[in-house]
Amino acid sequence: MNTQAPPTLPKPPSKLKHILTAVIVVLLLWASAVQTETSLGKLYNGLPNMWDLIEEMFPPNWAYFDNIAGPMLDTIRMAIAGTTFGAIIAIPFSILAASNMIRSPWIYQIFRFILNLLRTIPDLLLAAIFVAIFGLGILPGVLALAVFSIGLIAKLTYESLETIDNGPLEAMTSVGASKLQWISFGVVPQILPHFISYVLYTFEINVRAAAVLGLVGAGGIGLFYEKTLGFLEYDKTNSIILLTLAAVLVIDYISTKLREKLL
Amino acid sequence: MIELRNVSKTYPNGTKGLNNINLTFEKGEFIVIVGLSGAGKSTLLRSINRLHEITEGDILIEGKSITSAKGAALRRIRRDIGMVFQSFNLVKRSSVIRNVLAGRVGYHSGFRTLFGFPKEDINLALQALGRVNIAEKAYIRADQLSGGQQQRVAIARVLAQEAKIILADEPVASLDPLTTKQVMDDLKKINQELGITTIVNLHYIDLAREYATRIVGLRAGEVVFDGPVAEATDEKFAEIYGRPIQEDELLGESAV
Q: Among A123, B97, B191, B223, who pairs with B138 as Cys (CB 3.0-4.6 Å)?
């Protein structure tokens, strides 16, 4: 056995980077707390209030379910309509943003920029804008969700498009296919399961988003949050929360199962 | 008839892929192109249906220049040239028959093919599958098949396409010796029975000798041999390869 140490032992890497990272994180946390006037003392003082609120929420007002079943269905309808419109418009967007579908960087970079822009606008802001344009009701909510869906579905789809197998595309070129045939025979069968999965995923997100859009007057169950909170009817608020939770859980479960089957 | 006139291909980085190639392929020939990897076999084959662009010269298919063809005219020329790839290039999630029917798209408008194919096309696709002995697999997904079966589906696609020329780019490189023989037999049978001009890139020298009517040798993007099989002696191959033939360039007795 060789007991002699090798001539140059590797030095352990410096820990300085980790220590610096930790210091920066703590500093940021402290500075944010100071700037926003957050303190643990306030949290402690607020605890009894929180407890009071929770006490007032229970038991939930079961009779109120009759009033909110309709708006809850409206919320789901908004999510379905918004996701569907968004998904349809997302199809050309995702093709135009994929570098293996469109050779010109000018075109696909412009469409990527538009998609990034769409995703940076919060859905509540979109809803508020559409309410200002179209007035109160379900329509501005549907439009807000549709715009949000375009950004999300098209982004996920074009990234998947760029990873599809190029072989079948080459084969379609070699048989003399037109662009439409090239896409419908070479691209669509490869991307379709991914696309459907993204649409379902976006639908899950949209149901949750639709539940609060009512806060800015864009229809659905959100309006009732504001109403009951305003009248201090916390037992009713609790009913809304429970119903929303149940609806979201059921939809998420079904959607997740469907997506598992697809891929 | 395929004519390559002074064909050269220079890559953007300055490398010469093909250097002043002049070749004429007659109808019904079974041509095998041999050469080391990197000699330009694949580039040459893919230039013929313009999957690769050439930088100089002209390529004529039945007297029409594919080099200058555009849009519908280019698609019309490509419709007559079937291609078989090393990696089969099937849509794995689609059924076998849909993959074969993909060969028919050049005969219809894009709008028409969105709504399925006419009965005659489906019969043609089934006949094509029958010719390569896998008609019973028509309605299962392509990814359920073995490599050799997938390559036969790809050949059926070319048959359904009613191509007048078949280009096969290393069609057996990812297959075992037994399936290699089946696939090469299919190509040969189609060549003889239907008179389809067939150009195949091959790595194995003994396979080239067994199936070809004419052998073209490439070295560094230039044609260094062009003649009937009888003239392609071991010495000639050593010239093409720039060194004596090695063991792994022979498929071996087992399959041949």
A: B97
| B173–chain A nearest CA distance, Å | 16
Contacts of A189 in chain B (CB under 8 A): 91, 93-94, 98
Query: What is the ipTM score, two decimals?
Result: 0.89
SS3 B56: strand
Using CA atoms, how far apart are residues A76 and B40, in angstroms rounded to an integer? 59
Domains of chain A: 62-262 (1.10.3720.10)
Q: At what angle do helices A234-262 and A65-97 cross, to 10 degrees?
A: 40
Contact B105 A176 (CB under 8 A): yes
pLDDT tens figures, A159-178? 999 999 999 999 999 999 99
Count contacts between A and B (CB, < 8 Å). 80
Residue B95 pairs with which residues in a beta bridge? Answer: B141
DSSP H helices, chain B, are 41-48, 71-79, 96-101, 110-113, 119-131, 147-160, 177-194, 205-211, 234-241
Give A171's contacts in chain B (Cβ within 8 Å): 83, 85, 89-90, 102, 154, 157
C-alpha span between A143 and A127 (Å, rounded): 8
Backbone phi and psi for residue A131, each to the nearest 5 degrees, phi listed first = -65, -40
What's the one-letter identity of residue B112? R
Q: Which residues contact A233 (CB under 8 A, 6 or more apart)?
A: A61
- Backbone φ and ψ for B28, nearest 5 degrees, come out as 85, -5
d(CA A151, CA A113): 10
pTM of this prediction? 0.81
Mutate which of B50, B53, B89, B113 to disrupt the A interface (most A C-beta within 10 Å)?
A: B89
Cα A25 to Cα A28, A32, A34, A36, B121, distances in angstroms? 5, 11, 14, 17, 67
